[in-house]
Design brief:
- It is found in: Cytoplasm, Cytosol; Preautophagosomal structure.
- The chain has a domain at 7-194: HORMA domain (Cell Cycle, Spindle Assembly Checkpoint Protein, Chain A, 2-Layer Sandwich), CATH 3.30.900.
- Helices cover 33% and strands 19% of the residues.
- The chain contains eight helices and seven strands, in the order ααββααβββαββααα.
- The protein is globular.
């Protein structure tokens, strides 16, 4: 399938997929920090604003994402997953959700890598930004404190959903066709929160933020393998700017200096073009519009 692409298109597509994967991890983890994040919009976006979104990168998250990818890209039979879990002050743990970025064999050989694929990946990332804030884990992350904290891990390989318990639900964020396969972004989330008592949910202790945690072995088999590497205390860095967060340009310079300059397009046109092509699910569009309207109001 790759042989049908020109060398330049193949190079561009690999870069788009790589940075989309890195930004996907950032969006998911930052949605579990426990606080709302405010970023400033720009009327004159630069080439460093990947996918036309001003997403600040947490260096440790980028490092762990690159370590999980190990030089590979999500592809057919190679899924990148972000697992979100909860750990109580008593030491109990449970998985809350798993986000999966994968690719199937359905190809769109007529689609243009630049700039159609790029623009559709941009809207898919915006849909992810909205949907990460409507799953149950978002509400839990906003209430984390002395009773429990939110953890995450990134892994590359087979999707592991057994830890979500019975009756877990799935939602497809969206799909984007490419000449080498169809990119799919989805989430499976726990519906049974029996581990958490009603008393714990009602308590509103000080928000502690997220413990950025990374572990290699199967989660919760041995909690000694979990090592926090970053922590944000209450009141630190007010105004939505966090210590240790870098601009997107720092990530882009690793292999691609800037995002394509002609990708910048009006936000409304981006939505119309993408939805008209049918590359985003109705559920994702509904969540996205609901989130957008709530922010505006």
């Amino acid at each position: 399938m790759d042989s049908d692409l020109s060398p330049q298109d193949k190079k561009d597509l690999d870069k788009f997929i790589k940075f989309f994967a890195l930004k996907t991890v950032q969006v998911i983890v930052q949605a579990r920090l426990g606080e709302k994040i405010n970023t400033c919009s720009s009327s004159s976006p630069t080439g460093s604003d990947w996918f036309n979104l001003a997403i600040k990168d947490i260096p440790e998250v980028t490092h762990e994402a690159k370590k999980a990818l190990a030089g590979q890209l999500p592809g057919i039979g190679r899924s990148m997953c972000v697992e979100i879990s909860l750990k109580t002050s008593e030491g109990d743990s449970m998985e809350l959700e798993t986000w999966c970025l994968e690719m199937n064999e359905k190809c769109d050989k007529d689609i243009k890598v630049s700039y159609t694929v790029y623009n559709r990946l941009s809207l898919l990332l915006k849909s992810l930004l909205a949907i990460t804030r409507v799953t149950p884990a978002y509400k839990l992350s906003r209430k984390q404190g002395h009773d429990y904290v939110i953890l995450y891990r990134i892994y590359f390989g087979d999707v592991q959903l057994t830890g979500l318990g019975e009756g877990f639900q799935t939602v497809r964020v969206g799909i984007v066709g490419t000449p080498i396969g169809t990119i799919t972004l989805s989430c499976a989330y726990r519906t049974n929160l029996a581990l958490m008592s009603s008393r714990q949910f009602e308590r509103t202790g000080p928000i502690m933020g997220i413990i950025i945690d990374h572990y290699v072995e199967r989660p919760f088999t041995n909690m000694a393998h979990m090592h926090p590497c970053s922590y944000r205390a209450p009141g630190e860095d007010e105004g939505g700017t966090y210590a240790g967060i870098e601009d997107s340009q720092e990530v882009c310079t690793t292999s691609f200096s800037t995002s394509p300059p002609s990708q910048v397009m009006p936000f409304s046109l981006s939505i119309i073009s993408f939805c008209g092509s049918g590359f985003i699910s109705v559920v994702a569009l509904f969540f996205f519009l609901s989130f957008f309207l709530s922010v505006c109001m």
